[in-house]
Amino acid sequence: MYIPKYAQNDDMADIIKFIRQNSFGILVSQSDGKLMATHIPLQLSHDAKKLSGHISRANPQWKKLLNESEVMAIFSGPHAYISSSWYDHENVPTWNYIAAHVYGSIHLIDGDKLYESLKHLIDTFENSSEHPVRMESMSPEYIRKSMQGLVGFEIEITSIEATYKLSQNRDQKNHDNIIRELEKQPDVGAHQIAAEMKNRKF
Prior knowledge:
The protein is of the alpha+beta class. Helix content is 30%, strand content 35%. α4 (172-184) packs antiparallel against α5. It is elongated.
């Protein structure tokens, strides 16, 4: 990933927090010179050394996922258009955003490991539900049939990189004005980027 020096974030704890908060990612793999990608939830392990997930068995991408093959997972956060009319000088428009790329080797999983991966995923996202769904409340036969339609995997992480492009290359006056203009915009992403710019001192 191209990362301008001013937008590079080397705070791994911060990046890990970002990935956990934006865990609906894109799994990218390559086979026979062709790229394949699937949008799926990806769970970061407690020690941040692995990602786990699953794809539909009907998805042809899994057939190309050989054990030990290298894959990439992309995680995107808030983003917003930055108009150059918000500067006090001539410039071009741009885009502010936060994103992380995770690289690693993939291993297919099934049986108990797949069950535990699915349970962890459901428990995590059902946590705020008024009447949470639990794997334990589903019939064994239903779970067995459902799992037959899935292909689980783990990714042993080899590297992580992230970019936090938040107008750090602007002086204080222009930086503050960008925040004010973003806060006037109707979309949630603009407000989230404004909040990130406020909370981070460069």
